[in-house]
Specification:
FAD/NAD(P)-binding domain, Enolase-like, domain 1
Length: 481
């Protein structure tokens, strides 16, 4: 890259946050470059944009979830619709190839958007050298050669890595992290998963649908503590009925390899009793840790927290003027759309605009079957904060579209302020919860009341009518129950 003057901004990391930040910078007329070192699964070993989300997270997992769901529909649900299918089998390599094709297409799309918006894409490893006269110098190394890039502002978008468990070595053959579990070439007879969080449940869902016996070992005493308690209880019931075996309050003590090549996951339960789960594949899904070291951030004296997150304010400014950080490497939920919103905010502020992120209106989704989606606060959080509220709930057993689809599991729960009726939280379990949560997010963003939602016309028959019904249940009462 040839420079005649410093960049306005250099983005380190081309994941969800870094890509969108760079594109927005280009749209705003800023002179911008984005650096990425990780090749992920690129067949040529080239650094690949898209980060964890595109390459080994959100997108490939949803592709496999979609494929496995189609297979399960044929196997278990087609007959209820009068469709008779005999001898259906899953070609796992073809499923994986489809997933890889989607990822490659989207990665190419990012590079196209970089070119379209005049973002210089630098393939290499960034190392911060220092700062002189208000200008940062960053060395970008690739294939043994190094070039120095200068910029007036830096945006740290280095993302996160899978958390490792001491004594359990991930080889992505038999013991896998999320990347390895997305790339298996056959269905294991038995799969054990350490961690009952979002990653563990989604990966477990993929391979359970294809025939694996899935056991989930979780250190916490309950499922999904970050969700509303009603949602967590219902999901435990539904996932257990589907065949997932959960072991809560389990402290993993190690992994043993048997003579036949199988694995034994050893753990101790809450009562101190030792157990072992036999499996053919083990998935370690115990969360993620921020990537805040290894690229010279300490050279600038940027403050980090005890947990390794880059310390930032509400506008993602670090302790060093001109240095920003976004996405998984900073506080808050590790969500791609949160990182993207932060990237837009930062670039707009660098350009002199008033960028802003409403952290109270960021939706979360778990792509199991049924899906779980929520935005705003849970009932437990409102009680702990002493907020007086009213709750409305509507089951999909009373929804005509859900009946027609053949899946009436789940419900919508709306929480509203007792005095003002402002919507404070919405929680959904449904086949298409991910597509319905947008209405709830907009309602919270624009400070709608439950009555507002109840008085808005909702098309019939649709699943999202249940949001209206749950909102009506807070006031005069649901119309269809």
């Amino acid at each position: 890259m040839t420079q005649d003057s410093p960049l306005d901004v250099l983005v380190i990391g081309a994941g969800s946050g870094g890509c969108i930040a760079s594109i927005r910078a280009g749209q705003l007329g800023l002179k911008v470059a984005c650096v990425e070192a990780n090749p992920y699964a690129d067949p040529k070993g080239e650094p690949r944009p898209g980060g964890t989300c595109l390459n080994v997270g959100c997108i490939p997992s949803k592709a496999l979830l979609s494929s496995s769901e189609e297979f399960e529909k044929i196997q278990k649900h087609a007959l209820a619709h009068g469709i008779r299918v005999a001898g259906a089998t899953m070609d796992v390599p073809a499923m994986i190839a489809r997933k890889d094709g989607i990822v490659t297409k989207m990665a190419q799309g990012i590079e196209y958007l970089f070119r379209k918006n005049k973002v210089a894409y630098l393939k290499g490893r960034a190392t911060i050298v220092g700062r002189t006269d208000g200008v940062f110098t960053v060395a970008v190394t690739r294939s043994g050669s190094t070039e120095e890039v200068t910029a007036r502002n830096l945006v740290i978008a280095t993302g996160s890595l899978p958390r490792q468990l001491p004594g359990i070595e991930v080889d992505n053959v038999d013991v896998c992290d999320n990347a390895g579990a997305l790339d298996l070439r056959s269905v294991p007879g038995r799969m054990a998963i350490i961690g009952a969080g979002v990653i563990g449940l989604e990966l477990g869902s993929v391979w359970r649908r294809l025939g694996a016996q899935v056991t989930v070992v979780e250190a916490l005493p309950e499922l999904l503590p970050m969700c509303d308690a009603d949602v967590a209880r219902e999901m435990l019931k539904l996932l257990t009925a589907q065949g997932m075996d959960f072991r809560f309050g389990a402290r993993v003590t190690g992994v043993e390899r048997a003579s036949d090549g199988s694995l034994g996951l050893a753990y101790v339960d809450a009562q101190g009793t030792a157990h072992s789960v036999a499996c053919d594949k083990l998935v370690v899904a115990v969360g993620r840790v921020p990537t805040s070291s290894g690229f010279g951030l300490e050279t600038l004296g940027v403050k980090t927290t005890q947990r390794g997150f880059v310390d930032v304010d509400a506008h993602c400014r670090t302790s060093v003027d001109g240095v920003y950080a976004i996405g998984d490497v900073v506080r808050g939920p590790m969500l791609a759309h949160k990182a993207e919103d932060e990237g837009v905010m930062v670039m707009e502020r660098i350009a002199g605009q008033a960028g802003h992120v409403n952290y109270d209106a960021i939706p979360s989704i778990i792509y199991t079957s049924p899906e779980v989606a929520w935005v705003g606060r849970t009932e437990q959080e409102l009680k702990d904060a002493g907020v007086q509220f009213r709750a409305g709930k509507f089951p999909f057993t009373a929804n005509g579209r859900a009946l027609g689809n053949g899946d009436t599991s789940g419900f919508v729960k709306v929480l509203a302020d007792q005095k003002t009726d402002a919507v404070l939280g919405v929680h959904i379990i449904s086949t298409y919860a991910s597509e319905m949560i947008g209405e709830a997010t907009m309602a919270i963003e624009f400070k709608a009341s439950a009555e507002d939602i109840g008085r808005i016309s909702h098309a019939h028959p649709t699943l999202y009518e249940a949001i209206r019904e749950a909102s009506l249940a807070i006031g005069t009462g649901a119309l269809n129950m």
